[in-house]
Amino acid sequence: MPSIPRIVVVLALVLLPAPVVRADDPLLERDVLPVLTKQCLGCHGGLRQKGGLDLRTIPAMLKGGESGPAVKSRDAGASEMWKRIESDEMPPNDKKLTAVEKAAIKGWIAAGMPTVAQRQKDADPLLAAGKKHDPKEVAATIDAHLGKSLTVAKLKPAGRSDDTEFLRRVYLDLTGRVPTAEQAVAFLDSKDADKRAKLIDALLATPQYGEQFGRTWRDWICPPELPSDPNSGKQPNTEAQNLGKWLGTRFAAGDPWDAIARDVITVEGDIRSKPQVIFFALSGEGGKATPAGSARATAALFMGVQLQCAECHDDPYRAWSQKEHWALAAFFAKTTGDFGKVSEARGGKPEVTIPKSAFLNAGNSVSAAFLGGKTTAVKGDALRPALAEWLTAKDNPYFARAFANRLWFYFFARGIVNPVDDFRELNPPSHPGLMKLLANEFADAGFDVKHLVRCVCNSEAYQRTSRVAPGADEPTVSALTANFGWMPLRVMTADVLLDSLKLAYGDPKLDLRAIDPKDGNASGESAPVAEPYLEFLRRFGTNKEDATDFTHGIPQMLSMINHPRLLAGSKALDAKLKAKPAPDADAVVEWLYLSTLSRRPTASEKAAADRYLNKATDPAKGYNGVLWMLVNRTEYLLVR
User: Fold this and answer.
1) Fewer CB near the last or first residue (10 Å), C or N of the chain?
2) Considering only CA atoms, which of 402, 413, 463 is closest in space to residue 136?
3) Non-local CB neighbours of 128 within 8 Å, separated by 6+ positions
4) CA 190, 193, 198, 199 torsion: positive or negative?
């Protein structure tokens, strides 16, 4: 399906008898709006409405302009828009609609103007809402949803991953580091038929699980470049890292997502005891909390909704009005703070005044209201607790699905709704029944994050191989990706790569900063620009919007192949070589492969290593050369 254009359509279905949507009917979002966007909305859209005609929404089409209604459902011949398109009167330029485009619009009107939203409204989640289900039952239902879509698309999914592929993937995803050689051997040599499910449970019980999910959410909350203090230029790097640690502790403890979200949204106090204070300064301006910034970040992260365009005027691409944006912002009108502290004033009306920086309606007062709802009477003096109570309610239409969609994105590099913060009727889920299933299960489980992770990771969808059939063309691979029919290759984040290298080199303080030439750096790189961790993040940072984007280029390659620390040897390898009884060459090479690629070497790889080691004058340096080769392979850098 082509990407859905970002054009607002308020589907006022009460105005129309809901048509029975057939599979071959043209649909508004898929077939009609792309044509209108390209050919018509420049004159009849959000900025210009010649003749009083707005073609962005079905209600606006029915209302029409100076010439009357633009469309009449099921009667193209009586629809003014179609008559002018058919005669080539519109659009009034040389770029007339093609025969295919005309057929789509005529067929859409004749079919009763059906929409994707209508087709998806009654999607069946396949598991009844209202109770928490066994993870394996949910996993099987996930596969049923995806199996149906793959069958409809006439796609053959990739096969199941082997144990080595699954082992490395699940360790990287759930703990943010590769398994040790000993952990790899224990899993690979186990004959337990249920060992994959047991490994998932074991990893979820580790502190590393919390650490990985904490820093993942830290990165989603923090902008790519942290703002600087306007006076000192200092960036809140330590505070951002502490936010990740705080989140990680909560995830590891099994705290439900609604409790974590409430503690972020309602926080008051000092950042030294409450690291989540940084949320408000990061989303504000100049390191200061603002109502607009807080509303924007809350909507995107906890509701999966983009409100930024509605700050200054009604969003020309989505159904959000400026009033709705500021009604949500009103819950933060009494909140003040910076990177050090946050507080909320008490008393007064629950409202906000639109500032002068807004394009329209500056100076108008807007009362607090929940998104998509009516103005609410706030109980008590504090506004944010009222918002948090509504937001985290089990029946909230946004909260559970937003997290479930982000979790799916984390594992599959693509949301069921994509982008993950753009839920709207014109950006519907690719698999609506699956979206309902995951949101229902998450809410019914009391927003238990570990439960939802178990459900997804136990599915065959998660356990598919990243290897597509030989000879598969690009359209097939793209279709498999959209239908979750294989596991896309993802790039290790900087945190994951660093922790994995620390294990491989047995060095918890591994420092891969650029080294000053006066200290003997032959590569001539610049002097260190930050402490080791921050410098590594700067160099090896990845695209957090697209984990499949291979961002490692020449600077990263040069760091990996030339850095003196990676050429100097591994403390972990040294310990292995000193073990009693002393391991032979085959055992050491196998250990190196298990420590890095989480698998044993193939026969050809073993033979190549033997040839290389036989030429080495110093066995230790030879083994270090094998390690250097392994960590520089793309297989090492990727999550397969």
Assistant:
1) N
2) 463
3) none
4) positive
Residues of the chain by 3-state class (helix, strand, coil), percent to 5:
50, 5, 45
**Is the bond preceding 291 in cis, omega lying within 30 degrees of 0?**
no
Q: Is the peptide bond before 419 cis (omega within 30 degrees of 0)?
A: yes
Total residues belonging to the chain: 640
Neighbours of 396 (CB within 10 A): 19
Token pair 């998660």: residue: 462
List pLDDT tens digits, range 474-513. 889 999 999 999 999 999 999 999 999 999 999 999 999 8
The mean pLDDT value of the chain amounts to: 89
Place of tokens 């790889």: 605
Query: Which amino acid, residue 634?
Result: T
Contact present, 502 and 508 (Cβ < 8 Å): yes
**What does DSSP assign to residue 65?**
B
Rounded to 10°, the helix 585-596/181-188 angle is 90
By DSSP bridging, strand 351-353 and strand 341-344 are unpaired
HEC-encoded secondary structure of 369-382: ECCCCCECCCCCCC
**Separation in Å, CA 38 to CA 4, 7, 25, 43:** 13, 11, 21, 11
- DSSP alpha helix (H) spans, 419-514: 432-444, 449-457, 474-482, 494-505
Measured distance CA(594)–CA(602) in Å, rounded: 12
Task: Read off the DSSP letter of residue 425.
Answer: T
Rounded Cα distance between 393 and 386, Å, is 11
Rounded to whole angstroms, the Cα distance separating 470 from 466 reads 12
Contacts of 148 (CB under 8 A, 6+ apart): none
Which is nearest to 18 in space by CA: 121, 125, 124, 123? 121
CA-closest candidate to residue 532, choices 547, 514, 556: 514
CB neighbours (10 Å) of residue 557? Answer: 11
* pTM (predicted TM-score): 0.86
Calculated CA dihedral for residues 455, 457, 463, 468, nearest 10 degrees:
100
Q: Does residue 91 have a cis peptide bond before it, meaning omega lies within 30 degrees of 0?
A: yes
pLDDT digits (tens, 9 = 90+) for 560-599: 998 999 999 999 999 999 999 999 999 999 999 999 999 9
